[in-house]
Amino acid sequence: MIIVEWFNQWLTMYPKLNFVIILILAAFIYELGFSRKLPILKKAIIYFLLFIGCFPLTIFKALGLPIIQAMLVASALLIVVRLRRPANLR
After folding, report:
1. What Pfam families does its record include (predicted)?
2. Residue 89 has what pLDDT?
3. Cβ-contact 49, 89 below 8 angstroms
4. Residue 58: pLDDT band with limits 50, 70, 90
5. What is the pTM of this model?
6. Averaged over 1-5, what is the pLDDT?
7. Who has greater pLDDT, 11 or 52?
8. C-alpha span between 82 and 80 (Å, rounded)
9. CB atoms < 10 A from the CB of 54, how many?
10. Which of 11, 31, 20 is nearest to 55 (CA)?
11. Cα separation, 21 vs 80, whole angstroms
């Protein structure tokens, strides 16, 4: 619990960093769980929409919801799924 409190206190000291962390985690989750091979323009459009979609998540974080912690859990789960997936399905 002390680590979680320290992490939340650290994030409140740097509010602009919340958006950057949420954006990086969202891109990581997208790449691990949902991405496909796409042309570069379509990929740029998807990342632009991902960028826009991170604004509401940042607002939710500012309101006190544990968005970053939930995204860290989602990232960990997707890493486990990726590691357990057979090599021929990767």
Report:
1. YlaH
2. 66
3. no
4. very high
5. 0.84
6. 77
7. 52
8. 5
9. 22
10. 20
11. 21
Whether 62 contacts 17, CB under 8 Å: no
Q: Residues 32, 82: contact at Cβ < 8 Å?
A: yes
Q: Across all residues in the chain, what is the average pLDDT?
A: 89
Gap between the Cα atoms of 73 and 82, Å rounded: 14
In angstroms, the CA 7 to CA 1 distance is: 10
Q: Identify the sign of the CA torsion 66, 23, 37, 82.
A: negative
74, 24 contact by CB (below 8 A): no
| Number of compact structural domains in the chain | 1
Domain that residue 53 falls in: 2-89
Residue 51 corresponds to which tokens in the numbers above?
């960028």
Q: Taking 90 as the threshold, does the pLDDT of residue 48 lie above it? A: yes
Token pair for residue 15? 């509010």
